[in-house]
Amino acid sequence: MSNEIEIGRGKRARRVYTFDEIGVVPTRRTRDPELVSTAWSIDAFQFEIPVLGAPMDSVMSPESAIALGKLGGLGVLNLEGLWTRHENPEPLLAELAQITDGVEAVHRMRELYAAPILPELIRDRLGQIREAGVTVAGALSPHHTAEFTDTVVKAGVDLFVIRGNTVSAEHVAREGREPLNLKQFIYELDVPVIVGGAATYQTALHLMRTGAAGVLVGFGGGASSTTRVTLGIRAPMASAIADVAGARMDYLDESGGRYVHVIADGGLGSSGDMIKAVACGADAVMLGGALAKATDAPGRGWHWGQEAHHEDLPRGRRVAVEQVAPLTEILNGPANVADGSSNLVGALRRAMATTGYSELKEFQRVGLVYAER
Fold first, then answer.
1. For position 318, what pLDDT does the model report?
2. Can you list the residues of the chain whose pLDDT is less than 50?
3. b/e 254-263 (16+ beta carbons within 10 angstroms → b)
4. Which residues are in the IMP dehydrogenase/GMP reductase domain (predicted)?
5. 40-42 vs 45-47, strand pairing mode
6. Would residue 127 be called left, alpha or beta, if left means φ above 0 and alpha means ψ between -120 and 50 degrees?
7. How many alpha carbons fall within 13 Å on the CB side of residue 118?
8. N or C: which terminal CB in the chain sees fewer CB atoms within 10 Å?
C-alpha cells in the first residue's frame, strides 16, 4: 500500500511519522526491570547504556564526557568548539550564560568561535578524557575533518565522529575546494567512524557503503534547531529511523554480514522519545537537549549547536533549558518529576520490561501503533 498522498494536482508527498504519532504496544509477556539489559556495543567498545552525549559545547565538556563515560555511556567532544579554541573556556561559558538577549548572544558567540582551532588543545582535551580511563570520542564537521584528522588520531581517539546537519557520500564542491571522500577516508583510518546525519534510506545506504561503523539519523530536529523554519527541511524521526534501519538490514545482506549501527540524533526530548527511537530500530541515541538540562552541564541552563552562530545564516538558536538534576540523576534517577526528563535509562529499562523484552536488539521488534494527532 502506498504511503503517498496528493497535496495538489502536480505534487505528491510521502506520509511520514513523528514520535508523538506512534506508541509502543505491550505484549503478552512482562518481566522484572532487573532482568533487562541496556548494554550496547560498537566495534570493540562496549557500553552499559545506549547513550551518546552530543558534541555540543552546552552538553559535553571534557569533564562531562568523562562523567558520562563512567556512567556507562559515551561522551563525544566537539573538537571545533570552545574547548579547542580557548585555553580556559569556563569564564566564556559563564559569560554566555549571563547574556539573555538573543541577538547579543549570537554576536558574542560569533566572536568566541572565530578563534582558530588549536591542534594542541585537541590533543590535550582528548588526552584528559583518555587519562580518566573511559572511551574517547571526538567529533568534527565534514569540512574540518581532513585538516585535523592526524591530530585527532595521534591524540588516541577510540571513536571518530563526522557530524553535520546532513552528510552524504557524494558532495559537490565549488571549484578549487576538494570535497571529503568518505569512502577513502574511512578506509585509510585506523579507528571506527560514526557519520551523519542521514534521514533517508538511500543516503544511509550510501554512508554504510563507505565503511562507517555507525550512522547518525537526524536532520535539524533538535531543541536548538531552526532548520525547518529557515530552510524548510524536515525529517520526522520515527520514519527516518525506520528507513535507516531498513537500509541497515539490506546492507547486512549486501555486505555478507556487516552490521552498521543506527544512532538516533535529534528530536529526543524525553525518555519516551528515546524509547520510541529504539523501538523504531535505533541501536543507541545521541542526546543533546536532554543532557543540557543537567545542573552540571557546561551550558549552565542554555543549549546551542554549531548552527546557532553561523556567520551568515544561523539555522539554530541558543535556547534556555530548565536544569532539572545532575547528570547521574537524568540518566539513572531517581526522577522527581513525571515529565520524562529524568531517569532516562530507568524508563527505557521499564518499557522493555513492560513489553517483555530483555535486550535492546529484541526491543527493536516491539509492536507499534499509530494514533493521528
1. 85
2. 1, 171-175
3. eeeeeebbbb
4. 17-300
5. antiparallel
6. alpha
7. 12
8. N
pLDDT of residue 365: 95
| Interior angle at CA 269, CA 265 and CA 271, nearest 5 | 100
CA angle 238, 54, 309 (to 5 degrees): 105
Measured in whole angstroms, how far is the alpha carbon of residue 345 from the centre of its chain?
Answer: 16
pLDDT for residue 160: 96
**Distances in Å between the alpha carbon of 35 and those of 46, 350, 352?**
19, 10, 10
What's the pLDDT score for residue 212? Answer: 94
Cell 563507505: give the residue. Answer: 210
CA 82, CA 92: separation in Å to the nearest integer?
8
pLDDT of residue 221: 53
For the record, the C-alpha cell of 175 comes out as 571549484
Polymer length of the chain: 373
Are 210 and 195 contacting, i.e. CB atoms less than 8 angstroms apart?
Answer: yes
Residue 210, judged by CB atoms within 10 A of its CB (0-12, 13-18, 19+), counts as: buried
pLDDT score of 371: 83
